[in-house]
Structure prediction request, 228 residues.
Amino acid sequence: MLKFYFNGSPNPTKVALFLEEAGLPYEAHPIDTRKGDQFKPAYAAINPNGKVPAIVDGDVTVFDSNAILFYLAERTGKFLPANTPATRGELLSWLMFVATGVGPFSGQAVHFRHHSPEKVPYAHNRYQYEAERHYGILDTRLAKRRYIVGDTYTIVDMDAWGWARLVPLMMGDDAWAKFPNVKRLVDEISARPAAARAVALKDRHTFKAEMDDEARGHMFKHLARKVA
Ligand SMILES: N[C@@H](CCC(=O)N[C@@H](CS)C(=O)NCC(=O)O)C(=O)O
Prediction:
């Protein structure tokens, strides 16, 4: 059976959404990143990047949420737009936009807003600005269309949903007012039974809740190093 390595954070949760939507049977393997499970040798052999999510599907191993969504969509033929060259171009463009822009900038915006041990106004401003810019692009895209690519719900919507659910955590409680169309899509997806199951998956396991020195030691290894 497909093995899914996860915790309750945004990147694994979008993969959980796909697995639940597609009805694919899977074994859930918790990786407690606040306890350092991501660096254990058995998991490092699956994901050398030391992050979640990853999957092992028979003799196929895939890490990175975006790669996994694409792999699973191609493997099952589900949640892809119509297969025309033009739509494929859009699919790849928007998938990579989420993978290389929305995801990383969202992560850094959350980091410098909530987790940075020192206040760094320049970094905070840069990542808030870039997060806002990326969600603004998605919002404009969604102003005239129901889904990000094609006419149907696809992996690109799932990909964006993973982080977009956390817009208020990322940019403040009133941030949704700036992105009404993204909010509409997030609300539509979150109302799906598969999304409720994906979000609830983390509750079947007890993950370390505290972001204490142990957790920071595992997740923010740069703290132990001073670069020139
Ligand atoms: N590009 C990767 C990023 C994965 C990632 O940053 N995962 C976070 C959780 S959302 C993680 O594992 N953090 C633990 C750590 O940094 O040690 C993906 O989309 O899967």
About this structure: The CA atoms of residues 41 and 59 lie 18 Å apart. The chain has a mean pLDDT of 97. Residues 9-11, 33, 38, 50-53, 64-66, 103, 218-219 surround glutathione (CB under 6 Å). The longest helix spans residues 85-115.
